[in-house]
């Protein structure tokens, strides 16, 4: 890496443009191009961080394919699960400084708005997750630029989900950067940027699953397995995993799943199978597949009178919810959870502490989620592994 700024400096006069390596996607579905980009210094209430580790989520895969029309802005630097070190801070940033260990968070927290002051939501009025957003809040511009290989013209490169982590240095709004304990292993803390926090938080914060509860998890990707891990930690008595990929069942055992249901193995609907397994339905179900048919099955798999379904999957299609309003009068409830209802900046540090400590059943199994580790230059291979269902989380080392 060639850089015009060596080392970490918080002094405004020392902050310069950094030239570094990034994985740029120039059009939907095209291979990532490993190339040099220029990264501007942070402006007011912004932070520039050096990314050391980044992993790949299905949301990145969906954006790369251009499946969601809201995310079709190119060229772009994707990525939103990462960990790194603060390089410099912009004017007005008081809670972060050069050298701090941090993780980016796609769902920001300013700490001052009515939303942030309300304990019943983790959405921020200004910095919440926004799939439309591809520029910075301060001036509506981008902090990245690169030379188009075809034309030789320097072009702006756009941001993604408040984060953009497929790059050696990135600029974020300070509200989207969470400080973590310096002793925490950054390679593992990377997972807290999205998948683990989303799944575990949905169990702990959204559903508030208690000991002895019964749980069904629809979709055993990283988020679904994080749900299972959170339910195991909370000592759920029965955790049922639902997926059409039998390979997921082997790993699911390590995350506390007690029963498996492959829809392809049954002539009856999944919710009927689960009701038979549980004597009427589970207390909680979690839909992690982004599939409306799975969402309906998850809803109907809960016990009438008190069952709660938590929706975590991303649903990009224009199809509406598959329920008749009268079905809600049976006492079943449906809610959605963003980032596991964690307030990122204020609550993620304590979650990181929990992940660092504990033994056996009282420790979150972060290691189990990392299925592959590759150098950053192999990002296209990492996406191929995820698309083929062969990877849970592929950790890229920058």
Automatic annotation (TrEMBL):
Pfam families: ADH_N, ADH_zinc_N
Origin superkingdom: Eukaryota
CDD domains, sorted: alcohol_DH_plants
Domain Alcohol dehydrogenase-like N-terminal: 46-181
Catalytic activity: a primary alcohol + NAD(+) = an aldehyde + NADH + H(+)
Swiss-Prot/TrEMBL cofactor(s): Zn(2+)
Molecular function GO labels: alcohol dehydrogenase (NAD+) activity; S-(hydroxymethyl)glutathione dehydrogenase [NAD(P)+] activity; zinc ion binding
Example GO biological process: formaldehyde catabolic process
GO cellular component entries: cytosol
Keywords assigned: Metal-binding, NAD, Oxidoreductase, Zinc
Every Alcohol dehydrogenase-like C-terminal domain range: 222-341
Membership in a protein family: Belongs to the zinc-containing alcohol dehydrogenase family. Class-III subfamily.
Subunit details: Homodimer.
Identification of the protein by name: Uncharacterized protein
Provenance organism: Zingiber officinale (Ginger)
